[in-house]
User: Fold these one by one.
Assistant:
Number 1:
Amino acid sequence: MNRTARIYVAGGETLAGAALLELLRAAGHCNIVGMPPDEPDLASARQVEDFFAEARPEYVFLVAGKSGGIRLNRERPAELMRDNLLVAAHVIHQAYNHGVAKLLYLASSCGYPRHASQPLQVESLMTGPLEPTSAAYAMAKLAGWQLCEAYRRQYGVCFITAFPTNPFGPHDDFTPEGAHVIPGLMRRSHEAKLRNETELIVWGTGTPRREFIYARDLADACLFIMRHYDGPEPINLGGAAELSIAAVALAVAEVVGYRGRLRFDARQPDGMPCKGLDSNRLRELGWRPSTDFRTALAETYAWFLHHVAEKGDGPLEDRGTVLLCRKPGEPGASAHGGDGGPPGADAPGSPQQSRTVPFFGPFFGVKEDPTDVRTAL
Ligand code: GFB
């Protein structure tokens, strides 16, 4: 893929797509086609066909399709599944029709069976039932992978598939409806800080484990495998950090500067218990993530402050007043903070179903397990 090759990032406005565009430009690729706002509507077969006929991309990064956190997956499974099926079907077919030299399809680690053994290996794909909270979206992602595979088998094209771990970073979705855990908690702890709330509700038990990859590293991994991987088997794209949701919440609170208590609401869904990827294949090829988790969180928060908080949508409008946190019981301290969680859930709260973890200082170096966090205090 030389610097003058025509490259199309399908989904240039997504978290991964925006990072890829930035990276490609920085690497000197000067012939990028279909960049936002000129991207076709990928759910429209006609628009995709016209676009490929006109732009004639040689390399395609297919990182498009609606996605969202656990709440969006529970509320809008049909939309997520339909959009991802349409996007994959249209782009993959036109890439074949117009002789694209190579296509990389980005699937998702939620395509792994809920109880697959850890770390998740590509051999486990399609060997068991999916996590119910994201089954519809995951099924569409698996279909995209299988479609690449089918075109590869029938037409001999070089369409490869990667399964990335949970990404986060600039351009992420910070809305209460759509956010994944990091942008969701970042926004809510920011709001809790501004409102001087003494508690922040963290959905679920805090025990599920997730692996995270910073968007810039994900873009770098995508570029790397576009250059160095042609295999028929999918490849996992793992990141720099695997940790419990409790540890994530503590780390986000620290970066945001929220000093209140974290309360875990076990009535909210946990989703998949564990989603760590086996990325040995990628490591063997010579790729490693380069951004440590704390730096990535800090950069993401800086982006959030500039691009989301300063825009003043919704509850962030009170951003001008940065209040000092009060201790529980002090005047102005509220009973609990943040929003309650996904709609349909009970108000956070009974002692049996929720527990609190005081924020007690630097995240890095503390134990990750929330039980350890509690007993350490
Ligand atoms: O990131 P997340 O929404 O999605 O949630 P998944 C990860 C974990 O964080 C769950 C907990 O256990 C949530 O209950 N959590 C705690 C929160 N507080 C929050 C919060 O404020 N917001 C959010 N969103 N979660 C997704 C799939 O699963 O993974 C998608 O639903 C996609 O389909 C994505 O594939 C990569 O990691 O559980």
Number 2:
Amino acid sequence: MDYIKEKLITIGRPKAEIVKKLQKEHGDKVVQEVTMGQVLSGMKGVVSLLTCTSKLDPDEGIRFRGYSIPELREKLPKLHEDGEPLPEGLFYLMLLGELPTTEDVNFISESWARRAQNIPQHAFDVINALPKSAHPMIQFNSAILAMSTESHFRRAYLAGADKKDYWDPMYEGVMDLISRLPIIAAYIYRRVFYDEKHIEMDPSLDWAGNLAHMMGYDSEEVRRMMRLYMVIHADHEGGNVSAHATHLVGSALSNPYYSFSAGMNGLAGPLHGMANQNVMHWLQRLMDELGTHDPSTEQVREYAKATLDSGRVIPGYGHAVLRKTDPRFAVQLDFANKYLPEATLIKLVKKVYDVVPGLLEETGKVKNPWPNVDAISGSLLSSYGITEYPVYTMLFGVSRALGVLTQLIWDRLYGLPIERPKSQNLDWFKEKAGFNH
Ligand code: AMX
């Protein structure tokens, strides 16, 4: 057993005992009252999940095991003094709840580089069987499902593993799956946009650096941006669609490939991860229709207003939980101000930021008029030359694996049961409301 697994089980067993105790001895404690409005608005604010990897505050934004993004940028190991933290370090933090050393990060980097070597050929065959015009998320998810033939978890379950040991094959599967996602994503990218001219992985590189390398970007600048991108998209508490779907499917003891694939189907929705691609289409159409890359603030306002008047959402703005500017937006803006002060798209993003919150507030119905992570992430990628918008959600997905799959290991450590909330029909809700029509 490697030392990370040793640590995990040492930390995990007592916590699993606490979860059991809470269930058994405090099971009848009322934790919250739930209103009809909450249920009918998609369970907003209803506490119904146990998630330890990260926590989202409406005003402050995300904290990963207690650390904000600015703190992570300071405290997690980096390759260079002025670099960005390595996602391997964030994975370690989310898994074990403590900050990693450089040696810990190197251990994970090497483990992922080794595990990434064994992708079954049929995962690539499945991708190749799809038309190149199929959205990258279709290709990505098909490959993820195809790789479930390799599932340690499935094999261990069929072999009759003890329930309290399920976390172990889950850990093995999660490590394999995370290690392979950059290869799969880069393969799809080069297949669709670079005439199938694939680039081999470089085992000496870190996980995110390798992704940039295999996509065809070898400058230290792009690698730095990719590390930031992979860190900030990694997790957003347990109730968002991709995290919740992964957890829900995992609760049926589905293997990590099935579970993560479910999460990725959710990420592909326009109100969730696909928003990053849609922001770019929205900005591109704005520039095309106005015939300029440098529109006036008034022109941007009119364009945004026309979007709202036609009954569409402005992508990249609003959030189901956040009530302030997303710190993931703020950190990317900070990064862009430092490294890309003259980038046309970043200037446009700032103009949109100047006018859209006010317009959304004027509607009187939008609960959060501020930008989310997707309002700028595509402009950052595009400014570094990664201009193919359809791959943006897939890159989000590669990063999201870090958080949701770490939580899946913890779900099995805690021995969480199958998830089964109660549903009711309309008559039940009408009766509760005393609604007699
Ligand atoms: N533009 C226009 N209208 C918006 C809006 C936006 N950006 N954000 C919210 N609204 C509207 C809603 O559509 C809803 O309208 P309705 O009452 O007519 O149905 C009303 O405002 C109230 O919605 P809400 O309670 O403020 O938001 P929500 O929790 O229901 O939805 C979200 C949250 C993110 C889906 C929504 O803000 C949205 O559609 N934003 C644009 C898409 C986007 O950027 N998604 C990415 C989110 C981050 C992520 O997951 N990656």
